[in-house]
Amino acid sequence: MSQPLHRRVVPETYVQLLYDYLKAHGHDPVSVLAEPWPQPDPNGAGGIDVEHWEHLLATAAQQLGDPLLGIHLGRTISPRHFGVLGSVLLACNNLEAALMRLERYLRLVFDVLPMYRREGQGWVEIVWDTSEYQPGPLVNETGIVAMVQFCRDLVVGVVDPIQIDFNHLGPTDPCPYEEFFACPVRFGQAQAVMRFAPDVLAMPLKSPDPALITLLEQHADRLLAQLPQQDEMVEQVRRSISRELHEGEPSIERIGARLSLSPRTLQRRLQETGTTFRGELNLVRHELALSYLRDPRLQIVDIAMLLGYSEHSAFTRAFKEWSGQTPLEARQNQSP
């Protein structure tokens, strides 16, 4: 049998949400959960098994006597519980851009189920495909509450869904759920779904994360200063690539549009200088990777995302092709 696409894990930064919640409410989380604080794997290959995450949630709910823990916990979500991705989402212009970026990098914060968007007359939905795997009810409730709360915290304005569907059986009294979501809530449905009015997608986000933007600019500027000076066209392509990477993998179409050139013209101009778009993309990625690896604030999985990779394994393979060693080995071998 082939392996499933998703590893069915959640990152340690997300699990820390529960530990933070217990501590904030006067409990010792290590005593309540009988486990130490989760620490991210420096190689980015860690994570907490989703069924163990359900166990931790159920343990806390029982110890606290709180059947509504999913609501109470999910609404305390903050960008740092999403790792660097949370800060990257804050740099988007509107909610639609943030959701598109979240869909691309979902596996960095919830490597359990596919998520996709679908639209209809007067609505747009965020759907989790549970056809091959169904998480436990507390995982579902905490996750969807956290998503809605995060959207509310992101934008300037009011973001309320118009319908919420859970795929697990619900309580006899759905009123606490409908009070939080401010809309009808259905349980026992075929899929887990958040439905919004389409106009919320255009809502602008609050001020972007200045620390992240400064960090990205510092690394990009350091890279450009280290590279040998080239033809002005090559320099423009490199600058454009370095600015576009955290949006996802730059295409020649996107970079060409930035420079007001067709893809064919851009490729021809680069060939005239003895290089190619793919070659420049790999060069920028490699040099930025070396710069990011010197920054202890960034995990390997964060670096993969900032370089436009949706999975850290793809970044690891590419880095090994460039340098003959893995990113973690390169970090360990760097002099202080």
From TrEMBL:
Pfam families: Arabinose_bd, HTH_18
UniProt xrefs under SUPFAM superfamilies: Homeodomain-like
Annotated keywords: DNA-binding, Transcription, Transcription regulation
InterPro entries: AraC-type_N (IPR032687), Homeodomain-like_sf (IPR009057), HTH_AraC (IPR018060), Tscrpt_reg_AraC-type_HTH (IPR020449)
Domain HTH araC/xylS-type positions: 235-333
Highest taxon of the lineage: Bacteria
Protein name: AraC family transcriptional regulator
Organism annotation: Pseudomonas sessilinigenes
